[in-house]
TrEMBL record:
GO terms for molecular function: ATP binding. Residues 13-243 form the ABC transporter domain. The keyword Transferase does not apply. It comes from the Archaea. InterPro entries: AAA+_ATPase, ABC_transporter-like_ATP-bd, ABC_transporter-like_CS, BCAA_Transport_ATP-bd_LivF, P-loop_NTPase. This is ABC transporter ATP-binding protein. Belongs to the ABC transporter superfamily. Signal peptide: none annotated. GO terms for biological process: amino acid transport. It comes from Halobium salinum. Keywords: Amino-acid transport, ATP-binding, Nucleotide-binding, Transport. It holds the Pfam family ABC_tran. The keyword Aminoacyl-tRNA synthetase does not apply.
Length: 243
């Protein structure tokens, strides 16, 4: 039933035959990936498999060597991030994802720098989603905890109300008791209609939460299926999920 629902979704992101890397160094080969409208998709795989590179390639941050990336009907393959955000894609990198010397509010306003005015409704929606950011809006981002900075980075990406949010290891560096909270917040963002494409080291938890998952191996597609199917696949469990 779930698989049928997943198939029935309209495609939002389509990565087709993508070859990409850094300079002349090719990392991804023939990558195929889709995200449906409102879908929650996770990318897992061993260290160095190319998970972050796949995400960066969707957002125009790598050297393109072949294939296409289509988003909501538009070919974004050759676009730079500044153009891509106009089409409804938001990206939260793993590291250096806030401006430390700016306040929380300034960071959020930066998220909407492409607009002439700060979108007050979107700002209030971010504050409603992450009340700590409203309470600490005048605090310098660099003085916040890791978990709060991660919320701020997500909040900043949400300022343009993206159709698809790319999250690179959102639970990285968080104390164990904050990890479940972070996943709950991602569920909430998805429940509100935003599609998610997420890279996670915390693979089992990510697969439990998502609609579909991709296992990348050596820059190529390994396995794909519903989160449940991947968790139940003996070979995937043994090779990639620690048994
Ligand atoms: N900026 C870069 N320049 C050159 N090579 C890079 C760059 N970033 C990553 N790589 C290389 O690309 C390969 C894939 O890295 P990537 O970060 O995409 O893997 P990953 O699956 O996300 O791994 P991890 O789980 O360790 O973050 C690795 O061999 C890495 O050394």
């Amino acid at each position: 039933m779930e698989a049928e629902e997943t198939r029935a979704r309209e495609t939002l992101l389509e990565v087709s035959n993508l070859d990409a890397g850094y300079g002349d160094l090719q990392i991804l080969t023939d990558l195929e990936m889709t995200v449906g409208r409102g879908e929650y998709v996770t990318i897992v795989g061993p260290n160095g498999a190319g998970k972050s590179t796949a995400m960066k390639s969707v957002f125009g941050l790598t050297s393109h060597m072949g294939g296409t990336v289509t988003f909501d009907g538009t070919d974004i393959t050759q676009m730079v991030p500044e153009e891509i955000i106009h089409h409804g894609l938001g990206y939260v990198p793993q590291n250096d994802n806030v401006f430390s010397s700016l306040t929380v509010r300034e960071n959020l306003e930066m998220g909407a720098y492409i607009l002439d005015e700060v979108p007050e409704d979107a700002l209030q929606a971010v504050f409603d989603r992450f009340p700590i950011l409203e309470r600490r809006q005048e605090q310098k981002a660099g003085t916040m905890s890791g978990g709060q900075q991660q919320m701020l980075a997500m909040g900043r990406a949400l300022m343009l109300e993206p159709k698809l949010l790319l999250l690179d290891e959102p639970s990285a560096g968080l104390a164990p008791d904050l990890v479940a909270d972070m996943f709950d917040r991602i569920d909430d963002i998805n429940d509100a209609g935003t599609a998610i494409l997420m890279v996670e080291q915390n693979a089992k938890e990510a697969l439990r939460r998502c609609d579909r998952g991709y296992v990348l191996v050596n820059g190529k597609n390994g396995y794909v299926g519903s989160g449940r199917d991947l968790l139940d696949d003996e070979e995937v469990r043994q090779r990639f999920l620690g048994g």
